[in-house]
Amino acid sequence: MKAFIQDCIEANKQIYEYINTHISSTDLENTGKLGFGGDKSLIIDLKAETIFINYLSKYGTIYSEESGYTNSKSKKRIIIDPIDGSDNLASNLPYYGTSVALEIDKKVIAAVICNLATGILTYKTKELEITKIDLRTMQKIDSLDIQDEKVAVFERAYKNPKLCQKLFDNSIKYRSLGAIALTLCDARNYSFVLFYGSLREFDIAAGIFMCEGLNVYRGDEFLIVAKNIYNFNLIKDTINKL
Fold it and tell me: Rounded to two decimals, what is the model's pTM?
């Protein structure tokens, strides 16, 4: 497991350094093709995917948002979103990253999520609690324990105006940030996280693993995560009344 985490760190470090020192406008262009997950692929998506494949294919089957299965199937799967929030990256909006989950026999046992805008990488395994490091210094950093959450995050809010209106009617403050893996990674910092839309493994596998110990509801179209049970039930009831 230690070797897997280290290779994830090295892959993310390479992607982080490329984006911050060598990225060009060409990297942000569409390839003209849809990725396996259904979104348009940018050139940078494929470059990041290649880096992950080079580092991680030895650990099992790569299952990527961009290319689907990229090698022979085994009981071990590495589920990756090479660039989470690539539209943010292409818009110079500093909220984008990467997501990796290691799954054995359909159970995630390790996850690595990196915020490429800040250089903060987070990992967790079956044996290890959430750990954060700064890719610029390779030093571990302490996580803030936020007790008084100020805002929630509603990803893909634009797809559900009725629910947006309900949240407004209840004076619930939220943001829509555009990178679900990053958002789930820090779900403890928010009053709740709400995701609306198709729940693809690439988007949520690593993030859900990071949410161990929180209240989680996963339906056909909604994902709700909250530390506080009152907030969790409030949002769940609001959705059920739509």
Answer: 0.95
